[in-house]
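Extended Data, panel c. Modelled sequence:
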Amino acid sequence: MIARRTRRSRSIARITATVSATALALGLAAHAPAALAQEDASVPFEIETVAEGFDHAWGMAFLPNENYMLVTERAGRLKLVDRESGDVEEISGVPDVHAENQGGLLDVTLHPNFEEEPWVYLTWAGTNDEGLSGTHLGRAQLDLEERALTDLEVLYVAEPFMDSDAHFGSRIVFDRDNRLFITLGDRNSKDFGPDHYSQDLSVDYGSTLRFEADGSIPADNPFVDDPDARDAIYSYGHRNSQGMAMHPETGEIWQNEHGENNGDEINVIQAGGNFGWPIATYGHDYQTGEQFAPTPPEVPETIDPVHHWGQDDPEGFPPSGFVFYDGDAFPEWRGNAFMGALWPEYLGRFTIDGHDVEFAERLLDGQGWRIRDVAVGPDNGFIYLLIDDEDMPLVRLRPADG
């Protein structure tokens, strides 16, 4: 068991989606004003501030049998949050990161058997001696008593290092077999031809990688017998996925993906699959507005997304954190998916029936929140949200009557 010190308790400020002006005047949850009531939401909910003062938070993970959770900040800080008291402390021992543009400390997750294998997994942007950057995967032990990471191991470094500060990925998810998946973006390569990084199996970028929990390569990875391919690649043809989740019933790995100009997608990952970027896509050129490649069904060797946002959607949906809802707090939403929408600033809810995906509703529309990550908490299934901005709260949604 992880050593734990007793923490003082204080009440958590809670506001409802129909909070009164009087309550706001009292200063409750100043960063989480319910600017728009949610009367039109399918299920009434309250917005509760768990903790405050986060700077460009990126990923979160819940510690088992504790009130604690971990939150990454892109500048290179790992925060320990007491979900009961709202206290926030910094964890030492975090690796040095390249905190430029989209780079920095990115995702965090725990070993699936954390109580027996107390490993914390992190992804981050780091640099080599020449100052070029690459996505790193590592793990460390968590000493909760000392508020420190120890025994840090760098498990993998994506290659090649590049002179780019964009499209690092990089979500982390374990599957049912305790295999670890991470997403890697295409580093914003502007070569839109067949030699693009995402179509080049000799480089890591624009792909999904799969590892054993210790960072070794699974023997059944699809390209381990190809001398011209990187052994860690599981799927390729991706642009930049910042949301990934395992389906709780099927065990499939799902991803959302940033497209070029309204070409955003949801994909169900397949071993060895080519998901088309940039040779087959619904995206459109940023400068001309023209679709610059055929759609995936017209390129037989590529896999069509199960859902996409096309040019007829003027807002697009640059998606980030992605979770399937399987909690008890909102039984009406069980089996749905939630994703953060970065530019239009709302939380999207989707209905899922097999691989049939339908957009259901906008939640928190008008709050002005770039929702970077979304997770279902262990506290009866409340929905936790991280916001990508300075001095922002960690909030959770709970039923209005609960």
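The first helix runs from residue 21 to 25. This feature is highlighted in the accompanying rendering.
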